[in-house]
Amino acid sequence: MKKWTKEKVKNALIDFILILIACSVGSFATVSIMLPNGLSSGGLTGVIRILQSFLPLGFSTMYYLGALLILAICAVTLGLKEAKKILVMSIMYPTVMVIFERMNFQLLEEKDMFLAAIYCGVFMGICSGIAFSRGYSSGGSDTVAKIIQKKLLPYVSLSKLLMTIDISIIVLSGFVFGRNIALYALVTTVIISKTIDLILFGLATKIIQIEIISETPEAIADYIMTDMDRGVSIETIVGAYSGKEKQKLLVLCSPREGILIRQHVAKADPRALVTMIHVDSVWGNGHGFNDIDKE
């Protein structure tokens, strides 16, 4: 028991250090790159950028209020267990942002929106990648998508809702700041996504294969099909030692979807065995992969 307590303290300390680094990198991207160059993005950051045009409040103050509002709604609609995931970054991220605002430092010597869009995407992607790798979230559009799915659109996949929310924010920013800003925001969003995948799974991985051995295979399969909008196979296997039959789930998905699936399995069945395997190529007409007759 004592050893387990020490291990928990060690993991908590590592989490704190890594999340602090993530928040610092993300805050730097926002305060020292995005804002000085007049850019925007998707997610909560994009919403605050739009609201800042109409309300006489500082960016970090408005971000704080927005993050706490999402945290409160998440706790009410999704429960305290889900809210705990975003609690740390909902408080730490805007706090670190205030520090960077007072430093008043700009990365680029002169205004350059193209360079700013690229570097902003890289740094924000590093921030999200580190957070996702430790099972944390900043409580932005991904949390809003979960809330909408649970309360309004339970049959729409989480990935589609998230994409719709971010695109809507970017389009709206085009009406407020101009079309060029919206296009730069789209560039930033794409780079964020690619950087997250790089942080989580390295350069080459585009598709991964996940094998899950669980006591609750039906519930996990339902989540994969409904929330992830991915196909899943279930195979009966026999343990060599126990001789007992068990169910193994097999799914092919993107690295980011793999992280979401792993996090869900951790909640649904903490005793489950999860294996992630890098896949070089996947072909299959009508399955969301490369057409088998074109490559």
UniProtKB/TrEMBL annotation:
Keywords: Cell membrane, Membrane, Transmembrane, Transmembrane helix. It comes from Aminipila butyrica. Residues 230-284 form the DUF2179 domain. Its main location: membrane. It comes from the Bacteria. It is a multi-pass membrane protein. The chain crosses the membrane at residues 12-35, 61-80, 87-107, 113-132, 152-175, 181-204. GO terms for cellular component: plasma membrane. This is YitT family protein. It is found in: Cell membrane.
